[in-house]
TrEMBL record:
<keyword id="KW-0808">Transferase</keyword>
<dbReference type="GO" id="GO:0016779">
    <property type="term" value="F:nucleotidyltransferase activity"/>
</dbReference>
<dbReference type="InterPro" id="IPR029044">
    <property type="entry name" value="Nucleotide-diphossugar_trans"/>
</dbReference>
<protein>
    <submittedName>
        <fullName>Mannose-1-phosphate guanylyltransferase</fullName>
    </submittedName>
</protein>
<feature type="domain" description="Nucleotidyl transferase">
    <location>
        <begin position="10"/>
        <end position="231"/>
    </location>
</feature>
<dbReference type="InterPro" id="IPR005835">
    <property type="entry name" value="NTP_transferase_dom"/>
</dbReference>
<keyword id="KW-0548">Nucleotidyltransferase</keyword>
<dbReference type="InterPro" id="IPR050065">
    <property type="entry name" value="GlmU-like"/>
</dbReference>
<dbReference type="Pfam" id="PF00483">
    <property type="entry name" value="NTP_transferase"/>
</dbReference>
């Protein structure tokens, strides 16, 4: 069975309201909040540039003109504006015509990751098995996630298939906000606003949702109060 794929397109999700980051996000969209000297959006785009991605889509909604102005110098970026917020699934579905017919990356712009020995995007691309997968998620151990306050999302089996936390009190792995999706995942998807979780559940039922466990650092900046701690840890890791 053929393993691995060459990814040429990607989307960065940057349309959210960033409510928990207020008052900062009243005037600055959360993706443009600087953490340790670089905006979270630029961090995501730089990862994708290093992976050789030349066709990039960034969706916008809240303070869209600010994001547009920030990206004015990046010719490889096409904006997908959402007059009404479409959530993760609806946002990607709207941008599908810009994302080609093959597997593509989707990256959240409100998280930060640092790579282990092999870049996370390369690890995902190498792990992709087109005959078996509709979605491949980067996961991170809850125990070493910085700034994360949840109970975890998934467990993973020996074949890298995922299982939801369900009714269990905790799960060992969280969804790290980085993934490869195939356009076929969106066949028959809802119209308008919906979460990617709906499509993950559909893929789970078909045994076509897989994961790769991240081996680098992972940071969530949820509130203004969390910024100093994350910045200090990130600067330490990056230097």
């Amino acid at each position: 069975m053929t393993q691995g794929t060459t990814v040429t397109h990607a989307m960065v999700l940057a349309a959210g309201l960033g409510l928990r980051m207020r008052p900062i996000t009243l005037s600055t969209p959360k993706p443009l909040v600087a953490v340790a000297g670089k905006t979270m959006l630029d961090r995501a785009l730089d990862h994708l540039a290093r992976a050789g991605i030349d066709d990039l889509v960034v969706n916008t909604h809240w303070l869209a003109d600010t994001v547009k102005e920030h990206l004015a110098g990046r010719d490889e970026v096409v904006l997908s504006h959402e007059p009404d917020l479409l959530e993760t699934g609806g946002g990607v579905a709207k941008a599908l015509p810009l994302l080609g017919h093959h597997p593509f990356f989707v990256v959240n712009s409100d998280i930060i990751w640092t790579d282990g020995p092999t870049p996370a995007l390369a690890r995902l691309a190498r792990a992709w098995v087109d005959a078996e997968m509709d979605a491949l998620l980067l996961l991170h151990p809850v125990a070493s996630a910085v700034g994360y306050e949840g109970k975890g999302d998934f467990s993973i089996d020996g074949a890298d298939r995922l299982r939801r936390r369900g009714e269990a009190p905790t799960a060992p792995l969280l969804f790290a906000g980085v993934q490869i999706l195939h356009p076929r995942l969106f066949e028959g998807c809802p119209a308008g606003k919906f979460s990617l979780n709906i499509l993950y559940d559909r893929a789970l039922e078909r045994r076509r949702l897989f994961g790769v466990v991240h081996d680098g650092g992972w940071y969530h900046v949820g509130t203004p109060e969390a910024l100093p701690e994350v910045e200090a840890l990130l600067r330490r890791e990056e230097h």
